[in-house]
Write a structure and sequence with these properties.
- This protein has about 575 residues and is α+β, with helices and mostly antiparallel strands.
- It has three domains: about 190 residues, 2-Layer Sandwich (Heat Shock Protein 90); about 150 residues, 2-Layer Sandwich (Ribosomal Protein S5, domain 2); about 190 residues, MutL, C-terminal domain, regulatory subdomain (Ribosomal Protein S8, Chain: A, domain 1, 2-Layer Sandwich), CATH 3.30.1370.100.
- The chain is about 35% helix and about 25% strand.
- The strands form five sheets. An eight-stranded mixed beta sheet has the order 5-4-3-6-2-1-7-8, covered by helices on one side. The chain has a five-stranded mixed beta sheet with strand order 9-10-13-11-12, with helices on both faces.
- The protein is elongated and about 100 Å long.
- The chain binds adenosine-5'-diphosphate and magnesium ion (MG).
- Adenosine-5'-diphosphate binds next to helix 2 and helix 5.
C-alpha cells in the first residue's frame, strides 16, 4: 500500500478556499473587486445574517456569456491574463482566478449574468463546488452573485468567525474602502433589510465626491474636523482628507490609505502620516482618507490576497512626501494663522524632523483595551502636597476662583481644589458604588439626545447596547447612523455635544463586549461619563462647594480625578509666610 494519498478534489478546494476567504468580508472584497474589474458603474450589496446568511452583489458591468459563466467557476479561471504581459504581474495584482472557485467551494452559490449581444442571460447554481443547475435568465445588464450559507460545509471554519456585530463591521468597512477608492462608482449597502450606506456618484469632480462620501462614512462630526490635504513631488502625488490637529479621534478606526486607488495597510504610510503631526497627537489619532499616486512600477502589492501590505522601492521619498504634506497642509498653515492672532511664542509647532524611514520611531502604540482614556495612569501620578489629615479638618469655604477652583482655609493654610477634577472623582465613585450594588438610579430623558455616528461606530454601539443598559444608559437607533440616548444614570447630566463625544469615544475605544473584563468596562464608562457630564467654568454656590468637599473627604482616592490629575493642593501657613519673607507662620 502506498502511503502517499492524493487528496480528493473537494478537500483540495476547501483547503484552497481557506487561503482566499477567511470570513464574510473577504468574500465581499473579492466580489467587489470582480464587479469593479468588470467596469461596473453601480454596485448594490445585500447582506443577511452578518454575511453567513447571504452576500449578494449586483453590478451593471460587462457581464458574462454562457460559456464564460461556466468557466468562471473553475480553478485558475481568469479573463484577466491578456491584460498583463506576464505571469509575474498577474500574480502581483492578485488575479489568480481563485476567488469564485473558492467561494463556490464553501457556499451555496448562484451567479446570474448577461452580456450585451447574447441571446439571453444565464444563471448557474450550485453548492460546495458542485454545479446543480444552469438556467436561462432575463437579460438584465451585468452580473449578480449570491453566496448563501457561507461555510455551511466547513463547520470548523464557521466556528472561527467572530460575533455577528464584528463581522458586520468588517463587511461595512470593506464597502467603505471600495467606495472611497472608487469615487466614480455608486454603492449601496443593505444589511438585513436596512439601508446602511447609499453613496451615489455626484456631478462634480473628485473632491465633491470624496467629501460627500467621507461625510457619510466617517459621520458628520469626524468629517467636520477634517481638512483637505494635497502635496506633490516628482513621480508622486499625495492627496485626501485628514483630521485637523484640534479634532483628533480616540482610535485609528477611521484611517484609510490607498495606493493607486487600492486600499492598503502600510506601516510606512501610517508612520509617515503620524510623523506629519509631530507632537500634536498626544495619544489621539487622526482620521484620514489618504491617496498616494505612484508609478505602478515603483511598488509591489503583496500577492497574498488577504494581506494588503505593499512594498515600495523609494521608501524614503514616500515617507518624506507624505509627512511633509500633512505637516505643510495641517500644521504649518495653522501655525501661521495662530501666530497672527495669538501673542508671539504662545503656540509653537516644531517642524517635523523627517528622518529616513528606517530610523523612524516605532509605530505609534496601538490603542490598548482601555484606549487613551486614562490620559495619565493614576498609579504614576505623584501625591500632591496636602496635610495628611485634611479630611479631618474643618474646612472654611473662602470662595471660587476663575469659576474653576474652590478655595478653602485649612490648618491656617490655603487648600485649592480643582472643582472639575473633584466633581469627577466624587461622581466616579458614587456611580461605581451604585453600579456594584446593582442600584443605578436611571433617569429617562424627556427629549432623547441624538448623535450621528459612522456606520462602524454604530455597529460597536449596538454590540454594547445590552451591557450599556445594565450601566444605566438606554440607547436606541434611528436610521442607520443616528443613536438616541433615552435614559441615563441620574448622577450624570449630558448636553447634546457632550453625549456625541461620549458615544463617539466609547464606540471607538470599546472592543468586543465579551472580551473585556467587567471591572474594566465599568471603569471606562464611569471615567468617560464623568468627564463628559461635567463642565469646567461653572459657578458653584457655597453650599455646593461645602457638599462637594464633604463628598471628596469620603472618596476612596480624594487626591486624583479618575484620569489621574490632582484634585487639590495645599499651601501651608509657612509656605505663605515664606513668600512674604516672614520667618514664621502667622
Ligand atoms: P479573477 O478575478 O482573479 O480573474 P475570479 O475567480 O475572481 O478570478 O473570477 C473569475 C473570472 O470570472 C474573472 O476573471 C471574470 O472573467 C469573471 N467574473 C467574475 N465576476 C465577474 C463580474 N462581476 N462581472 C463579469 N465577470 C466576472
Ligand atoms: Mg477576482
Amino acid at each position: 500500500m502506498p502511503e502517499i494519498k492524493v487528496l480528493p478534489e473537494d478537500v483540495v478546494s476547501k483547503i484552497a478556499a481557506g487561503e482566499v476567504i477567511e470570513r464574510p468580508a473577504s468574500v465581499l472584497k473579492e466580489l467587489l473587486e470582480n464587479s469593479l474589474d468588470a467596469g461596473a458603474s453601480k454596485i448594490e450589496i445585500e447582506i443577511k445574517k452578518a454575511g453567513r446568511g447571504l452576500i449578494r452583489v449586483h453590478d451593471d458591468g460587462r457581464g458574462m456569456d454562457r460559456e464564460d459563466l461556466r468557466l468562471s467557476l473553475g480553478r485558475h479561471a481568469t479573463s484577466k491574463l491578456d491584460v498583463f504581459e506576464d505571469i509575474y504581474s498577474l500574480a502581483t495584482f492578485g488575479f489568480r482566478g481563485e476567488a469564485l472557485y473558492s467561494i463556490f467551494a464553501v457556499s451555496r452559490l448562484r451567479i446570474t449574468s448577461f452580456r450585451a449581444g447574447a441571446d439571453s442571460g444565464y444563471a448557474i447554481e450550485g453548492e460546495g463546488g458542485r454545479v446543480i443547475a444552469e438556467l436561462p435568465a432575463p437579460p438584465v445588464k451585468g452580473t449578480t452573485i449570491e453566496a448563501a450559507d457561507l461555510f455551511f460545509n466547513t463547520p470548523a471554519r464557521a466556528k472561527f468567525m467572530k460575533s455577528d456585530a464584528s463581522e458586520r463591521a468588517q463587511l461595512i468597512k470593506t464597502v467603505e474602502e471600495a467606495a472611497l477608492a472608487n469615487l466614480g462608482v455608486s454603492f449601496r449597502l443593505v444589511i438585513d433589510g436596512a439601508e446602511i450606506l447609499s453613496l451615489p456618484t455626484l456631478p462634480g469632480g473628485l473632491w465633491e465626491n470624496l467629501k460627500s462620501r467621507a461625510s457619510s462614512i466617517f459621520g458628520k462630526s469626524t468629517y467636520g474636523g477634517m481638512a483637505r490635504v494635497e502635496g506633490k513631488t516628482t513621480g508622486m502625488a499625495v492627496y485626501g482628507l485628514a483630521s485637523r490637529p484640534d479634532a483628533l479621534c480616540a482610535t485609528r478606526v477611521n484611517q484609510h490609505f490607498f495606493v493607486n486607488r487600492r486600499p492598503v495597510a502600510s506601516a510606512l504610510l501610517r508612520q509617515a502620516f503620524y510623523r506629519g503631526y509631530g507632537h500634536m497627537l498626544s495619544g489621539r489619532h487622526p482620521a484620514c482618507a489618504i491617496f498616494v499616486e505612484l508609478d505602478p512600477g515603483s511598488f509591489d502589492a503583496n500577492i497574498h490576497p488577504q494581506k494588503r501590505d505593499v512594498k515600495f522601492s523609494g521608501e524614503n521619498e514616500i515617507f518624506k512626501t507624505v509627512s511633509n504634506t500633512i505637516y505643510e497642509e495641517l500644521l504649518s498653515k495653522q501655525t501661521a494663522a495662530v501666530n497672527m492672532t495669538a501673542p508671539a511664542g504662545e503656540v509653537k509647532f516644531g517642524s517635523p524632523d523627517v528622518p529616513a524611514y528606517r530610523e523612524a520611531a516605532a509605530p505609534p502604540p496601538a490603542v490598548a483595551e482601555t484606549g487613551g482614556l486614562f490620559d495619565q495612569p493614576a498609579a504614576a501620578a505623584p501625591q500632591p502636597a496636602v496635610p495628611a489629615d485634611w479630611r479631618g479638618h474643618e474646612l472654611k469655604y473662602l470662595g471660587q476662583l476663575a469659576k474653576s477652583y474652590l478655595l478653602f482655609e485649612c490648618e491656617a493654610g490655603l487648600l485649592v481644589v480643582d472643582q472639575h477634577a473633584a466633581q469627577e472623582r466624587v461622581l466616579f465613585e458614587k456611580y461605581l458604588d451604585e453600579f456594584s450594588k446593582g442600584s443605578i438610579k436611571v433617569q429617562p430623558l424627556l427629549v432623547p439626545l441624538e448623535t450621528e455616528l459612522s456606520r462602524s461606530q454604530m455597529e460597536t454601539v449596538l454590540k454594547w447596547r445590552d451591557w450599556l443598559k445594565t450601566a444605566g444608559f438606554e440607547i436606541d437607533q434611528r436610521g442607520p447612523a443616528v443613536a438616541l440616548l433615552r435614559a441615563a444614570p441620574a448622577l450624570f447630566y449630558f448636553t447634546q455635544p457632550a453625549f456625541s463625544e461620549f458615544l463617539g469615544y466609547l464606540s471607538e475605544v470599546l472592543g468586543e463586549p465579551e472580551k473585556a473584563a467587567e471591572d474594566m468596562k465599568r471603569n471606562i464608562i464611569a471615567t468617560m461619563a464623568c468627564k463628559k457630564s461635567i463642565k469646567a467654568h461653572d459657578f458653584v454656590k457655597p453650599q455646593e462647594a461645602q457638599r462637594l468637599m464633604e463628598d471628596l473627604k469620603k472618596a476612596g482616592d480624594g487626591y486624583h480625578c479618575p484620569h489621574g490629575r490632582p484634585t487639590l493642593f495645599h499651601l501651608s501657613g509657612s509656605d505663605i509666610a515664606r513668600r512674604f519673607q516672614r520667618s514664621a507662620a502667622l
